[in-house]
Amino acid sequence: xxxxxxxxxxxLTRKLTDWLGGRTLSPPLAGELAAAFPPDGEFFAELAKAxxxxxxxxWLGSRGAPPLRYGRxxxxxxxxxxxxxxxxxxxDVVGPQHTHPNGEIDMxxxxxxxxxxxxxxxxxxxxxPGSSHAPTVTGGAAAILYALPEGAIxx
Length: 155
Description:
Elements: H1 7-20, H2 29-36, H3 42-57, E1 63-65, E2 68-74, E3 83-94, E4 98-100, E5 104-110, E6 116-117, E7 123-127, E8 131-133, E9 136-149
C-alpha cells in the first residue's frame, strides 16, 4: 500500500476488502453489502468522510479535471484480497464506457442531495464479471469508491 495514504483510509478499505474476500461478484452482492455496511451506518459514514477529505486534500482523484476526476489509490495485493481501490469524483457527467473482466463493486457517496450514480443513490452497486457500462452521475456531484478484483478494467 502507498505510504502517502492516510492510515484511516487504508484500514477502512482493508475492512471492506477483507469482507469481500472469496465472495462471488454479482448484483445481489449489493444487498449483502448494504446489510453489512448500510449507507446510514458508522462504517459507511467513516469511509465516505475519508473519501470526501481525500478529494478535498487532493490525494484522491488526482487525475483528470472537473467534471471527472479519478485515480487508483490502492493496487491489488494479497493484503487487499487482490482488490484495487479507485476513487472517482463525477459531477453530472457520463464517464467512459468500460468493461469489468472480474466485476466491479461501487460505493456511491452523493455529495449533492439527489446525486445518483447509474440511477442509485447512497449505497452499493455491484457489476458482475464481464459486465460493461458508461458510468453516469446525475443530479449533482458524487464520489464513487470502486473495488476491482485484480484491478482489472478495460476501456
